[in-house]
Design a protein that fits this description.
By secondary structure, this protein is an all-alpha fold. The chain is about 65% helix and about 0% strand. About 45% of the residues are buried.
């Protein structure tokens, strides 16, 4: 990636964010270049459509950065930058530090996106905590909140439990607001988050597999074509409960699915990457379940691929 991003982020380095997380709140000011930016958006969107290819994804990120350089208040570009940097870390990186860096970039752009709501930006600048300031969010803030929360959750989780718990109130507040304003956003995203959340929590912090199961059922019923929900259920709920049968069903479903089954949903690229995740989970199936759980289903470890 080019160095253009450095000048665009509100907080360019993780170490420069007051010990919190990447990004800082500041009321956005237009550069007066919206007309120039509009001429750049179509090229960025065209590259975005090919984001299953890493080269196309990075091209899209560069081009959206050009849009923001021309118009720092362009919400469409900021949402795509937040989502795109998250996707780049989630789907294309295996190294922990690379994931941390890319998700940190996503958080920076996401915070800039949330800051388009001047009420939230002003409140945080005056000392209100982010988790409380989000009460002032409106419908147009939903994509900013969702993708920032998604990136922040992954950014914390991959580093340590303590960092996860530190930022969990903010992540929960953002997702809760999305759930309130638009529960169907991003293919029933809030329910998908809560499904993983209640399964992934430590037992001392409120782990609840029954709630997790209910939320996963809701998100899968609402958007059965979006494969991430089943991958997450396999990874968090089925492994957490040692339910080999459900794990196998979900992995088998994902691997057999048509990633482009619902073209108008715009998630073909994401579905393809979720199939990659399913294959990876299948490869370590024998490590995810204890011997008794595997023996109980009479499996030699290949049933999900049958």
């Amino acid at each position: 990636m080019s160095g253009r991003f450095t000048a665009i982020l509100l907080c360019a380095a993780l170490a420069g964010c007051g010990g919190k997380h990447p990004g800082t709140y500041q009321a956005a000011a237009s550069a007066g270049g919206s007309s120039d930016a509009s001429s750049l958006v179509s090229a960025a969107d065209e590259a975005w459509d090919g984001r299953a290819d890493e080269a196309k994804l990075t091209e899209a990120l560069d081009r959206y950065a050009e849009v923001i350089a021309a118009d720092p208040t362009n919400r469409h570009a900021l949402v795509r930058l937040t989502r795109g940097w998250y996707f780049w870390g989630d789907a294309f990186a295996t190294d922990k530090e690379v994931k941390v860096e890319r998700w940190g970039e996503a958080i920076g752009f996401g915070t800039q996106c949330i800051s388009l709501n001047a009420k939230i930006a002003d409140a945080v600048s005056q000392g209100t905590k982010e988790k409380d300031a989000v009460d002032m969010a409106i419908a147009s803030d939903v994509p900013c909140l969702y993708w920032t929360a998604t990136a922040l959750g992954k950014w914390g989780k991959i580093q340590s439990l303590s960092k996860t718990l530190k930022h969990l109130p903010t992540v929960k507040a953002y997702i809760s607001k999305v759930d309130e304003l638009d529960p169907e956003f991003y293919h029933y995203g809030p329910a998908r988050y809560w499904g993983a959340y209640y399964a992934a929590l430590p037992s001392f912090a409120g782990q609840d597999f029954d709630k997790s199961a209910e939320y996963f059922e809701a998100t899968i019923e609402g958007a059965p074509y979006y494969l991430a929900s089943r991958v997450l259920r396999a990874e968090y709920h089925s492994v957490g409960t040692q339910d080999v049968v459900q794990f196998d069903k979900d992995i088998k479903f994902v691997l057999a699915a048509d990633a482009d089954a619902k073209p108008d949903a715009g998630v073909t690229a994401e579905n393809l990457k979720e199939q990659d995740k399913a294959r990876a989970l299948l490869e370590i199936r024998h490590e995810l379940f204890d011997k008794k759980a595997l023996e109980a289903v009479g499996s030699d470890g290949e049933s999900a691929a049958d």
